[in-house]
Design a protein that fits this description.
The longest helix has 37 residues. This protein is mainly alpha-helical and 80 residues long. The chain contains two helices and no strands. Helix 1 packs antiparallel against helix 2.
C-alpha cells in the first residue's frame, strides 16, 4: 500500500508539472500570435492560427487529463 500511495503521489506530481509546462508553452504560442495580430493589416490567417492554438491546447489537455484520471483510478483500485 505504501508503494502504491507513493506511485500515486508521484503520478500526481508529474501531472502537475506537465500541466504547468503545457500551460506555459501554449501561453507563449498564443502571445506570439497575439503580438503578430496587433500589427497585422489582414489578420484572418493569424486569427485562424490563434484559434488553432487554443483548440490544440484544449485537445491535448483533455487527452492527457483523461490518461491521468485513468491511471489515478487504477492506482486507487490497487491500493484498496
Amino acid at each position: 500500500p505504501d508503494r502504491i500511495q507513493a506511485a500515486h503521489a508521484q503520478w500526481t506530481a508529474d501531472w502537475l508539472a506537465w500541466e504547468g509546462a503545457h500551460d506555459a508553452e501554449y501561453k507563449m504560442k498564443a502571445a506570439i500570435v497575439e503580438e503578430q495580430l496587433a500589427g497585422a493589416v489582414d489578420s484572418r490567417a493569424l486569427r485562424a492560427r490563434f484559434e488553432a492554438i487554443e483548440s490544440e491546447k484544449l485537445e491535448l489537455y483533455q487527452r492527457r487529463y483523461q490518461e491521468y484520471v485513468q491511471v489515478a483510478k487504477g492506482l486507487q483500485r490497487l491500493g484498496s
